[in-house]
Amino acid sequence: MIHILRKLSRDLPAMLGLGIVLFVLVLAILGPLLAPYPEDAAASHLTRRLRPPSAAYPFGTDNLGRDIFSRVILGARGALSIALTVVSTAMLIGVPLGLIAGYRGGWVSEGIMRVTDVVLAIPQLVLALALAQLMSPSLESAMLALSLTYWPFFTRIVYAETRRLSASLFVDALRGIGAGTSRIVFLHILPNALSPVIVRATIGLGFTILVAAVLGFLGMGATPPAPDWGLAIAESRTYLPRAWWYATFPGLAILITVMGFNLLGDGLRDIVDPRIRRSR
Amino acid sequence: MMPVLSVRGLKVSIRTDEGMAEILDDVGLELERGRILGVVGESGCGKSTLIRAIMGILPRGATIDRGEVWFEGENLLAFSEAELNDQVRSSRIGFIPQDPLLALNPVFKVGTQMLEVMRWHAPDAKDPTGPRGGARRKAHVARLVGLLRRMQVPDPETALERYPHQFSGGQRQRLLIAAALACAPGLVIADEPTTALDVTTQHQILLLLRELVAEFGISLMFVTHDFGVVAELCDDLCVIYAGQTVEKGPVQAILEAPSHPYTRALLACHPDRATTFLGIPGSVPSPLARPPGCLFAPRCTDARTLCLAGRPPQGLAPSGAEVRCVQFA
Amino acid sequence: MSPVPILAVRDLSVRLGGRKGFLQRTILPVQAVKQVSLDLRAGEILSLVGESGCGKTTLGRTILGLQRESAGEILLEGRTVSGLAPEAARRARSIVQYAHQDAGAALDPWWSIGRTLEEGLLIHGVRNASERRDRVAAMLQAVGLDATSARRYPHEFSGGQLRRLALARILLLQPRVLILDEPTSGLDMSVQATVLNLLLELRERFALTYLFISHDLSVVERLSDRVAIMYLGRIVESGPAKQVFAQPTHPYTRTLLAAAPRLTGRRASGPSLVRGDPPNPTLVLPGCAFFDRCPVAMPVCQEAPPRLEPVAPGHDVACYGAFIEQTASIGAKRRA
């Protein structure tokens, strides 16, 4: 663990990513305390509509007179919770399937992997749109759709790692001393397979935030008056280009957050890459 | 007669996370024309760094602090990277690697890989009067096929058109020996070329190398950890311990009467000689903190106070070997 | 010496791999071990010698129960333990343990040594944590390692230390038979000597029997009581080590002995006994597998594989030539 942190600290982009991620995390946890106008999550002030950025409203105000700075801060919690829910649901589905398919072999494994391939072939956004149409446009259906399309990434990774690990000597040695299947799979293979999963999850968090914003923009995700970044951009369209600040700051929030997760994910990948791990 | 290769007082350090590691402390060896020199040492003694220093392929962060590497009358350490590439590596010094599978690119035909090297390094590569273009390539193919036939590679004519995975381990090693000889070098350096092979294949390769040395007029530096292979193949022997040459001389003399306490202890570990399996107590001193005095003294059964005073000088043992030990100073 | 061997193998055959493809390429199975019979007597060291691909490791893994036999019997102290499903087989054979060739790779890199060593005890039902710790500490000492090693991780150990750890790990399970797969390969000479010394010491101390898998003839000659030479899945010669090394009878044994580099140095150069490459294990030959490399091959050798027959008490050879030679010499003696 210490070894990983030390290596990470030498990787400047990854440290930048880590900084952004931690910053967004703080915003998400302490959002209502940090935002200058926490009540602007729902309230509207028609007297101060569409004010440009100023000292009182650093990012300006929107069409309902709400402080965009506050709403960007308040939006972090929504974005992060969508991302975390989606990625953890996807992991809960994908990781066990990958373990089973990798360790068992035979038709069970074939079946799981072919289904995985089929789901992998469905474009994520298209399925999400279809599901949102089928149910009702809401955050829940967006999250469900994203989870249902993201798990195959984890299955594939865990499958490949499990295949490699179950052929490895230390698993062979464990069988030799009489270890049972569940002990081998959960106590030995899973922890060893976890590092690429964590990398994938980190990148997945950023990706999910982006797709969730797109869904919000299309009106398939968060519903007004939630302080959602994607939704804010959608609402701003009528007032562009005059109220440039309305779309710019939520957009920057999305850009920086996604970039943060991707930089961190790339940095982690470099560290856990087996080729690099071996040369320590 | 002047030796083909002569390394004198070579000291190489490599910068690591934990500080400067003195991988080679003081290595000296001579390889006479037409002879086979075995370089023996245990893992971590600096064998591969020695090879890299001679061929000028030391890793980044490595510095040559002291010493000379003379090859056919020229000091290689004075050569620039471009000169080494142009005039020495592959063309005058051939190399046989330890793992034939790692040394061949799996996506190219073996012929393509070997001819590419010959295109730049064969003796006629820079000869303006000789054949050019297709004719020269044909000459190279002919030479390679001849070499492969000599190496007893089955179907040498079609072998060049095949991929590395289509050969067995022993055949791949034969291919690489042919590749090392392709540009007619005067010196061939082999880095444990038989460790990955089976006993019978190893035996065949060793016999082949012996014949080739006489036939092609090359000199061979054979790096290994296996005294049995040395006894079988080599004329001269150089034992390295912790980056120092501790004993060098004719193989027969050293095997019959090892003089340096390390050589004695190591040979006593060989199952053919061991009376009881005791090993050598202690471990090799870390290259990060070499102790003063004789590097073997902490593990030596005959160590005296004199041994701790300073690095012992080279002396001549009754067997005729040059030994780095106060007993013979 | 007890009359019942501690481990007996009867006509054991093992088929490896093979896949009948639906939507997949069909891969033919490899007959890795063919009708092998072995007796391991309590307390002895039997060496299994052969080149890569000869089936010696497969044989070891099958005896352990990691690989299923396709035919034949395995008996432990006279009890049949073959014909079981893999996990049941491992339980029935827990007095047999196996040390991998690559000791470092046989350890989970994420687990500390202490945890790894205790795991074996836990699997074998030692519930008391302090008892486990004490036994691990004692065993680490027995293999010559510091008790603090328990806190460290596999990558912090040297090759020789890893071999010791591997031994400690299996010895904690109180086995009686150890299958040692190339226990000294890749080790430096000085370290190899200490590991061999440890093996001999442990055998005394824990009353162990070794099945020693190796290709290093120098080590085998020094260490073993008996040897069995394997070629392409079959045992071609077996007998007391002294006798086999003094009078190698099968042409393959002679080839191996001639090829092994020995400290005695270069032998008088003559035509080399060693011909051809080690064979491809997927080949199916009707006759003797060594036929195409054999310097004394006869037409009969191509018809059926020769069976192991005694040439001296306890010394068996599977070669038609050996018996012709023997009969000839007997005949010569009679005539004389």
What can you see in these coordinates?
The complex is a heterotrimer of chains A (280), B (329) and C (336). Chain A is mainly α and 280 residues long. Chain A has a single domain (2-40, 54-278), classed as MetI-like fold. Chain A has helices at residues 2-9, 12-34, 68-104, 106-121, 124-134, 139-166, 169-176, 181-217, 229-236, 244-272, 274-278. The longest helix of chain A is centred in the N-terminal third of the chain and has 37 residues, at 68-104. Chain A is elongated and about 75 Å long. Chain B folds into 2 domains: 1-92 and 187-276, Rossmann fold (3-Layer(aba) Sandwich), CATH 3.40.50; 103-184, no CATH class. Helices cover 33% and strands 23% of the residues of chain B. Chain B is built from 11 helices and 12 strands. In chain B, helix 4 packs across helix 5 (133-150) and helix 7 (169-181) packs parallel to helix 8. The radius of gyration of chain B is 21 Å and the shape is globular. Chain C is an alpha/beta fold. Chain C contains 10 helices and 12 strands. Chain C has an 8-stranded mixed β-sheet, sandwiched between helices. A 4-stranded antiparallel β-sheet of chain C has the order 2-1-4-5, covered by helices on one side. In chain C, strand 11 and strand 12 (315-317) form a beta hairpin. Chain C is globular and about 65 Å long. At the B-C interface, helix 8, helix 9, helix 10 and helix 11 of B face helix 6, helix 7 and helix 9 of C.
From the coordinates shown, what is the CATH architecture of chain C?
3-Layer(aba) Sandwich
Give the count of helical stretches of chain B: 11
Derived structural class of chain C: alpha/beta
Number of domains of chain B: 2
Class inferred from helices and paired strands of chain B: alpha/beta
What are the segments of chain C in which pLDDT stays under 50 over at least 5 consecutive residues? none
Count of DSSP strands of chain B: 12
What is the CATH first-level class name of the largest domain in chain B?
Alpha Beta
Radius of gyration based on Cα positions of chain B:
21 Å
SSE series of chain C: EEEHEEHEHHHEHEHEEHHEEH
Largest sheet, spatial ordering of strands of chain B: 6-7-8-3-9-10-12-11
Percent strand of chain B equals 15-25%
β-strand amount of chain C: 15-25%
Q: Which two protein chains have the largest interface (Cβ within 8 Å of the partner's Cβ), and how many residues from each?
A: B-C, 40 and 37 residues
Please give the oligomerization state of what you see: heterotrimer
β-strand number of chain C: 12
Q: Please give the largest β-sheet of chain C.
A: 8 strands, mixed
Note the total helix count of chain C: 10
Q: Which H/E pattern describes the elements of chain B?
A: EEEHEEHEHHHHHEHEHEEHHEE
Describe the biggest sheet of chain B?
Answer: 8 strands, mixed
